[in-house]
Amino acid sequence: MLIAVLLGTIFLLSLPGTTLWQRVVQDAGHGPVFAGIAILLLLMRAPPAGASVRAPSDYLRVLSWAAALGIVTELVQVSIPNRDVSFMDAMHDAAGAALGLAVVWMVERRRSLARADETRTRSVVAAGLLAFTILAWQPLQAARAYAERAAAFPAVIPAGSRADAEFAVAHESTLGYTQLPRRWRQPGEGNSIRLEFKRGARPGLQVVEPRPDWRGYDVLAFDVTNPASEPAWFMLRVLDAQHDWSHEDRFNQPVLVPALTRTTIRISIEELASAPRNRRMDLAAISDVMIFALQPPVAQEFFVSRIWLE
Predict the structure, then answer these.
(1) What CATH homologous superfamily does 156-309 map to?
(2) Closest among 27, 89, 10, 101 to 64, alpha carbons compared
(3) Which end of the chain is more exposed for a tag (fewer CB within 10 A), N or C?
(4) What's the gap between Cα 109 and its chain centre?
(5) Residue 9: its pLDDT value, please?
């Protein structure tokens, strides 16, 4: 019954999350759940007669069962709407099971440290540390992304390699980093974001989950470069956590980026705040920033050097 409850928890963890932390906690949550499942399965097997510890084969058998169970729970989701099979989740399931079994091994062997077990115990400790590293990797990377985002503020983007990997999304284009062409580059300037796209595409750059509190700032600025021989129309979009996904409930402003030009677009924060039709935008809860082409640009690249607050 308890195992069924734990498996039910896995399906709840698989519900889509909206923030990076929610997604990471959901993914990492597979580890503790399968640690509990593996420990329960092991405790259901009594030690051999006259022994105080379970045999190594019992641990390997339970690890195999738990890993197989994790794979099955992923395959079951193929038939469930809005669910995807995740190799990462299956790996977290196996890592959690391995970590739980390693803990039980150490507890049992603490009472019976036979010399014959020393080599095997070192292997178990190594496996447990590896499993812990696998489970901790995503939370640590998420923490790094949030730390980079906070350190870069009031720059919205770029914020750092890990932050941009998590919070910057390219639409109908490929996101890369490179120096601006020489004619627009300033001395000592670093790389800019380059959106590369196919002819006929409408490229866009979206910043999801930016640092939300924009109170105390007056201007939102975009440093962009249009290398095309014709001007390009772009839409600037900003919304907050209360947004209802209607066009009227957010800030939308079309801007014309002249041909062969690097320019800075500045938007008043007061304009953002007053943009929703029936309310003021919550400047303490900004949740999304996007710039995207209204028509396919002539060139197959577009540059965003920086988005920031002043």
Answers:
(1) Galactose-binding domain-like (2.60.120.260)
(2) 101
(3) N
(4) 39
(5) 53
